[in-house]
Amino acid sequence: MTDSRARILARIRTAVADAPEAAPVARDYRTSHTPDAPEALLDLLHENLADYRAHVHRTAPAGLAALVARLLAERGARSVVVPPGLPEEWLAATEAARRFDEPRLTPYELDGTDAVVTGCAVAIAETGTIVLDGGPGQGRRALTLVPDLHVCVVRAPEQVVASVPLALPRLAPARPLTWISGPSATSDIELDRVEGVHGPRTLEVVLVTEP
Amino acid sequence: MPAFPEAAREAVGNPTLRANLRHATHTIRDKRARAVAELDDWAALRETGKRIKDRTLRQLDTYLLQLEEAVTAAGGTVHWAADAAEANRIVTELVRATGETEVVKVKSMATQEIGLNEHLAAEGIAAYETDLAELIVQLGDDRPSHILVPAIHRNRGEIRDIFREKMGSWGRPAPEGLSDAPAELAEAARLHLREKFLRAKVGISGANFMVAETGTLVVVESEGNGRMCLTLPETLISVVGVEKVVPTWQDLEVFLQTLPRSSTAERMNPYTSMWTGTTDGDGPGTFHLVLLDNGRTDALADEVGRQALRCIRCSACLNVCPVYERAGGHAYGSVYPGPIGAILTPQLRGTASEVDASLPYASSLCGACYEVCPVAIDIPEVLVHLRGKVAEEGGKGHRLERAAIKASTWVLDHPGVLATGERLASATRKLHPKRLPGPGARQWTESRDLPELPAEPFRDWWRKNRT
Ligand code: SF4
């Protein structure tokens, strides 16, 4: 094993010994393709999420609990996973049974749960992406993977950025990250897009804006 | 394995296959053009992507060592595999150590390249492919024909038949009365695979990127099968080519913009997973990274050919290639088909076999592949370079050379291929030799010049004809 390490490194060094120095990396692409206006950003995020068949809703903080309860009820969710650190008031109005992840739910238990409600770390308008980093209110990665319905709450404007280059500096690489752009989908059968192969088949995104 | 012209002849004679391929490649390429047009700094992103990769390759030893240190510090274990046999051995031992006899797999070119599934099967370990297309290929006892959509050559009726006949022998059978509607087929795959995900103790993946400075691995996917394999098992083993490393966290901002738009023509693929070593309480408690050489350092030593290692496997070059569209992925005799396969395979494996020697000729040199490549790999340049090598190594009248000449004759004898090729070719004019290099090629070009190429720049033609 150590032999191969030394051998591969030696082969690399021999292979590039005569190669010219590489050109410097110029970064003259854009950091963002969108004007810096919070309202427009939110509209773009909304549009791009919807384009990839996420369902998008907007509410003021006061309406959040009722909206979450309605979304869970509309999809017939009778049980919901509650990630550690999820603000209690988000689930104040739902009748769905709460399942906490302490001790850790088994994959089978998660599979037997209808929905999960989470927050997020950041949302990217240009690509219609929400990013989870396992922070408070998000939980470990499996929680947003196995249940069939994911309700994700985005706080605007502070969690919304325009672009991928603006999102990366806000994320910590040491944490496990999941970038989600619309629900699970496949195009493997004659390139017809079908939602929901293995991940949640329904993604409801709630944009919470100050009135 | 037959050389390219033989293999291609079979594909060209199969109307179902050709119709499936044509529909698929044209759909993706049109969508891709729209997705790329949304970013007015595409040219700058492409140039930066190219430079990042060139820089990485120039100092590959440094970045791999940095990566190893970061992954180790984050709780992972790094292994180095010089070739396929060693990689297979390492993975087998790691699976054995868990006491398990089955694993779930994320679609990965590297593990296909080394024939990991077959090796594991021989060692009594069942490896289940979980990507829908890979599942179709695996159940159908077939070979993948496209980098991104490996079952592109199958239509819905064929897929239904495969599911009906084969699912039962691998696990949960297909539902009664399964139709050929894509939604029903996807649902059948969901049910079939879910039982495997929930009980899986070992997952095996590749990676799209590895970040040297942080030790982070990145997998982009659509279905969520990747997330299942990466997060539910207790042990995760990732087999990744050494060329997949990028220096910095910031570098991801370039490739996460160019890869999805070039491959699935989306602004972003549905799921991207990033992990760094292991994390307490989230995901596998044990993580192994197997760094794979398997011919990559040979490619690195070729001053013209090394640019093929910049490839981020987006598959855009396949979808625009007039030869791929007609010949299909299987004709290339490798897990890497299409234009990138034509330059990567002979470099990774050498040109000692007929099929490998014929690959640099499996092209019309039209240049469309270079135009779409998000890391600006000059595929036509490498093709011409490799033709020279094959001709030199072959010697006069050698069988390899004959295979190669036959391949180019095949391409140039197919008016459809050539017509598309000629019209697209002007962008690479400077690269077109009047005569093919090498002594063997001469006997062929003596009787006919390479086709004349029009002066109209490719972009103009594209704009007029495609948009
Ligand atoms: S060679 Fe370029 S276009 Fe082809 S798959 Fe690789 S990155 Fe994509």
TrEMBL record, chain A:
Matches recorded under InterPro entries: FTHF_cligase-like_sf, LUD_dom, NagB/RpiA_transferase-like
Pfam family name, one: LUD_dom
Residues in the signal sequence: none
Transmembrane segments: none
Residues in LUD domain copies: 45-208
Name recorded for this polypeptide: Lactate utilization protein C
From TrEMBL, chain B:
InterPro entries referenced in this protein's UniProt entry, alphabetically: 4Fe4S_Fe-S-bd, 4Fe4S_Fe_S_CS, FTHF_cligase-like_sf, Helical_ferredxn, LUD_dom, LutB/LldF, LutB_C, NagB/RpiA_transferase-like
Pfam families: Fer4_8, LUD_dom, LutB_C
Record GO biological process: lactate metabolic process
Record-annotated Lactate utilization protein B C-terminal domain positions: 387-465
Keywords linked to the UniProt accession: 4Fe-4S, Electron transport, Iron, Iron-sulfur, Metal-binding, Repeat, Transport
All residue ranges annotated as the 4Fe-4S ferredoxin-type domain in the record: 308-377
UniProt-recorded Gene Ontology molecular function terms: 4 iron, 4 sulfur cluster binding; metal ion binding
Domain of life of the organism encoding this protein: Bacteria
Domain LUD: start-end pairs: 66-289
Gene3D superfamilies: Alpha-helical ferredoxin, NagB/RpiA/CoA transferase-like
Protein name, per record: (4Fe-4S) protein
